[in-house]
Amino acid sequence: MTTYKVSKGTPVAFRDSAYPTSYPSPNEGELFYNGSSGAFQFIGVGGGAWSSGASFPAAYVGRGAAGPLNASIFFGGITGGSVSANTELYNGTAWTETANLNTAAFMFCPAKQGTQTAALAASGSINSADLARNELWDGSSWTEVGDLSNTHAYADGAGTSTASLAIGRGPNPNSLVESWNGSSWTEVGDINDGRYFNSAAGTQTAALTFSGAPGNPPAFTANTEVWNGSSWTEVNNLNTARSTGGGFGTQTSALMVTGYTPTVIANTESWNGTSWTEVADVATGRTRPGSTGASGAEGIIGGGQPSGGASVEEWAFAHPVKTIDVS
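Predicted structure:
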């Protein structure tokens, strides 16, 4: 429990150890005395950084994913030149292989706010055929459920396993959006600018889509749109136009990672509900990665071209604890 010791001047918190660095902290900016180290310290302003995560079991391109950083599920993709049905779970330390998809595919519209026990693999592509099929994960196996009205391969998704959106459509740019209620898909309001290779975040009633290809490659856009449950509104653009990157988070806290514009870039941008800000770059720029995260404060990205391979990077906000030199 925090106590305060005062002999002169302003009271300073006395602690037996440093404050936790987890984000967000109600003690941001607070000066305290750390009894275990015998030093005055303060907890700094939270900031985001990338770090290396455990690599995939193999190199992948175009994986689907759902869940938060330390409890995520990744599925499908292309590996070794073949389309895969592989599914793996991540606990923040290691990958565990689990039951395969019924149909091998890549470039899904995944419900990234799903979980390791309830995920959705919507649409996708296999070789030269784009799919309208939809699979539901219950924590132990995949089950084919209601198909989409249209294919949405090479686009992106938002929401959960029972309430999600498929946003955009490839392999040619399209404005189509479909909504999933847990049993069937319904066409809803189109995005203003048709695109594919876009990224998305949020929920079925509060979504965000950004980046993408508004024309045939190498086209790319900085356009960002928000969904209020009935219509899309254009808002502030990304600082760097791109396509084929990774994205995750919520409508008010999202991340846009890497992509193509017209070369592969490592840039990361953070969305605060109003505007995009450039933040720390990933170590490896890549296109067509798998990505997921509960918010813009934490997430994971892995695989991709040209050199993402099996590499995985983790994004997290934290508060630095800094020692004050009083000598």
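Summary: The chain is about 0% helix and 40% strand.
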